[in-house]
Specification:
Largest sheet: 7 strands, parallel
Oligomer: single chain
Strand content: 25-35%
Helix content: 10-25%
Radius of gyration: 37 Å
Shape: elongated
Strand order of the largest sheet: 7-8-6-9-11-13-16
Length: 739
């Protein structure tokens, strides 16, 4: 007979081999030999082996039906051998001696009825192998100890070792025991036992700060509109521990594996080191308790290796994207999100692959990078079609961890929690850990996007982007925490889960500002900004930090672009395109026929959504006030060409102008906002003296920076909306009045 190798269960024989009663007695005798041997000193081994001799005699004569008597004799000789041992016995050895003394003197009594066995209703929270044994009311402490001792004896007689961890005599009487589940049938029949309960996990019920942050409710409890089920999320990361309690039954580990070799000497790594990043990221997306969209399914595509900061290559990521594309062609999943929780150097090839993936119908979400740098210098963060996410901390400030910190700049679309995020750990199926970075921030946005796509399954990537930005917490970050050169271009918004994602913001017109990089400093150097596929450019403006620029205009090259021109002696200029998501309108730019004359919209079926002007001679640009009402025109200064952005109406879009000119002392900037339900589509400045530094939109506010000490500068906003249903019967193009 073979001894089973599993020590955790303490089994002394192979339970798969059927044993008769005599064979079980023999095995128990061998067990007693081992215990007694461990208890005796070396000088008393001779007496100990007397008992062993008797056991082997039993083997020889057991077919002569003399076994039982010899077994009893061997037990007595054990007592003789052990009595001569001078060393103290351990608690387990004392228990075995008690067993030897009792084995033939009296049978082990068990209660006639079984006690109740209880376990947690949540399977993932159970802790098998650890049990609380509760005895009946009125049971004395010595009876509790006797019950625990009896359980140990019964288990040992059947080849199991158990451990009594603690006894209780306060709120209830009983004890905590570690034992195999195979011993339960003995435990429930012990005298005095009322019930046995399997141990289980208990969790603090306060939501982690990151989940509290992305819900805008008074209760602070995380409760999204839906769980993101029926949305597939491909995570390109390390491997994922699919059996983790946070992710059980919702992770499919694909057969793709394109991982570069690790640098330096290769060493053996634990599995947890290879799946720690991917498991944590997946937990943030769809963890049962730590996830944003706990119902979303996860598909693991491994592209990162196990090295330190988890590394891959451009070609590996490209191959991973191709694998996902091919998989979706064979087995389509819609809607689908691809999470890219990594950043590398700028790659035109990788950006092109991401762009094509978006245009095939996927929503791609990427980490901005953790280098405290311009996100536009990294891929895939620099690809405009990808939703790029920066990381914020609990104070809604840009994440900084030691020498590392979130990337910023115009290529970042919004921020999300990324500091000290608690999620699933790869160390074990029930372990959790905290990590920080833009990978965690991007995972939050992937979860929010899954919640959105659950109720809007046909939404395109550009619509997801606009809804994320529209519902984000606006202007919560301190601009002083951002690098000076990126304060204007970095979006000041933190992602949140919206209450009603299916409402599409109440049919609001959704717009955003797209900044170009800063132009060169040579005269007539240009900067260009453009909208995404699926967006319409409603207006074009520009901003010069030193106030020397020659204006801006909308040009159609390979695509429609907002082009800003640097002035003579200028230090560079930014172009700012106002891009709106609306399939119901088509916009065009109409230039004035001659310099110094106004540019007009061609028909009453057009709405004026923005004005801009350009000085071809390189002179300093200066805008004038747009004209609404029947004219719908953009006046021009002498020597300048005016351009009117006019959108042809296919529905009841209405637009009007808002203007603010302070009467007090000069201000560092002049602002005017659109009212609720109105959306800013155009922003310009007007001055009676020196030209301002330009105008740009931030959220729903038009901002104009006057020249130093300049008075009489006005900010002019063009605000548009689709009227409420009760007003939708008004004629298209009807002017509601100017404010």
């Amino acid at each position: 007979m073979q001894q089973k190798s599993s020590q955790s269960r303490g089994v002394l024989y192979d339970k798969t081999v059927p044993l008769n009663k005599s064979e079980k007695h023999l095995i128990n005798s061998a067990h007693l030999l081992l215990i007694a041997s461990r208890a005796c000193s070396s000088q008393n081994k001779a007496r100990f082996f007397l008992g062993g001799w008797c056991v082997w005699v039993c083997v020889c004569v057991w077919k002569m039906r003399l076994f039982v008597g010899l077994y009893q004799l061997s037990s007595l000789l054990y007592l003789v051998a052990l009595a001569g041992c001078e060393e103290d016995y351990t608690e387990d050895e004392e228990m075995i001696l008690s067993l030897i003394r009792q084995v033939d003197s009296r049978p082990v009594l068990e209660s006639g009825s079984s006690a109740q066995f209880l376990r947690c209703t949540k399977d993932a929270w159970r802790i098998p192998g650890q049990y609380i044994v509760v005895v009946r009311n009125g049971t004395r402490d010595n009876q509790v100890e006797r019950t625990a001792r009896r359980l140990r004896v019964n288990a040992a007689r059947r080849g199991y070792l158990i451990s009594i961890l603690r006894t209780y005599s306060g709120a209830f009487h009983g004890f905590l025991v570690q034992m195999s589940s195979d011993v339960l049938h003995m435990a429930v029949k012990l005298p005095h036992v009322e019930y046995i309960e399997e141990d289980s996990s208990i969790f603090a019920q306060g939501s982690p700060w990151n989940l509290e942050r992305i819900v805008q409710t008074k209760t602070g409890k995380y409760k999204p509109p839906n769980d993101g089920s029926e949305v597939g999320v491909y995570i390109m990361d390390t491997t994922i521990q699919a059996n983790h309690r946070e992710l059980a039954q919702r992770v499919m580990v694909t057969d793709f594996n394109s991982v570069p070799e690790e640098d330096g000497v290769r060493v053996h790594r634990q599995a947890s080191q290879c799946d720690s990043h991917g498991t944590h990221t997946a937990g943030v997306v769809s963890g049962r308790d730590s996830g944003v969209a706990p119902g979303a399914s996860v598909n693991s595509v491994r592209v990162l290796n196990c090295q330190g900061f988890k590394k891959t290559s451009t070609l590996s990521v490209f191959a991973g994207l191709e694998y996902i594309r091919a998989s979706l062609q064979v087995q389509p999943i819609s809607p689908v999100i691809v999470l890219l929780p990594f950043a590398g150097g700028f790659s035109r090839t990788l950006n092109a692959a991401c762009r094509e993936m978006v245009r095939s119908g996927a929503v791609l979400i990427a980490a901005a990078g953790n280098y405290q740098d311009d996100a536009c210098l990294y891929s895939p963060a620099s690809e405009p079609e990808v939703i790029t996410v920066g990381a914020s901390n609990a104070a809604d400030q840009p994440l900084t961890v030691g020498t590392m910190g979130t990337n910023v700049g115009r290529c970042v679309d919004l921020f999300a929690p990324g500091d000290d995020i608690v999620s699933a750990s790869g160390d074990c199926p029930t372990c959790f850990t905290a990590k920080s970075g833009t990978s965690q921030a991007a995972a939050h946005v992937a979860g929010i996007a899954a919640v959105l796509l659950k109720e809007n399954p046909t939404a395109r990537s550009v619509e997801v982007l606009h809804l994320l930005r529209h519902h984000a917490a606006q202007q919560v970050m301190n601009p002083e925490a951002l690098p000076l050169e990126h304060r204007l271009t970095t979006p000041n918004m933190v992602a949140v889960v919206f209450k009603s994602p299916s409402a599409r913001a109440g049919e609001a017109l959704l717009c955003r500002s797209v900044w170009s990089k800063r132009s060169g400093v040579m005269s007539f150097d240009t900067a260009a900004a453009h909208c995404l596929h699926g967006e319409e450019m409603f207006s074009c403006s520009s901003y010069s930090p030193d106030g020397v620029w020659a204006g801006e205009r909308i040009e159609v090259r390979e695509r429609k672009e907002c082009v800003a021109h640097n002035g003579v002696g200028g230090q560079g200029v930014y172009a700012v395109a106002r891009c709106c998501m609306d399939d119901r309108v088509q916009c065009q730019s109409f230039a004035s026929a001659h310099m110094g004359t106004e540019a007009k919209c061609p028909s009453p079926q057009h709405q004026l959504t923005g004005c801009c002007s350009y000085f071809g001679s390189g002179g300093v640009a200066d805008a004038t006030r747009p004209l609404h009402g029947n004219s719908k025109a953009c006046p021009a200064r002498a020597g300048a060409t005016s351009h009117a952005s006019c959108c042809q109406i296919t529905s009841s879009l209405e637009c009007r102008g808002n203007e603010y000119q302070p009467c007090s002392l000069p201000l560092s900037q002049v602002e005017v906002s659109c009212e609720d339900s109105w959306t800013l589509t155009g922003c310009s400045g007007a001055s009676q003296g020196s030209a301002p530094h330009g105008a740009y939109a931030r959220g729903n506010t038009c901002i104009v920076r006057p020249s130093r000490g300049e008075r009489g500068v006005a900010a002019v906003a063009i605000c548009c909306r689709y009227p409420p249903p009760q007003q939708s019967s008004s004629e298209p193009g009807q002017e509601p009045g100017r404010q």
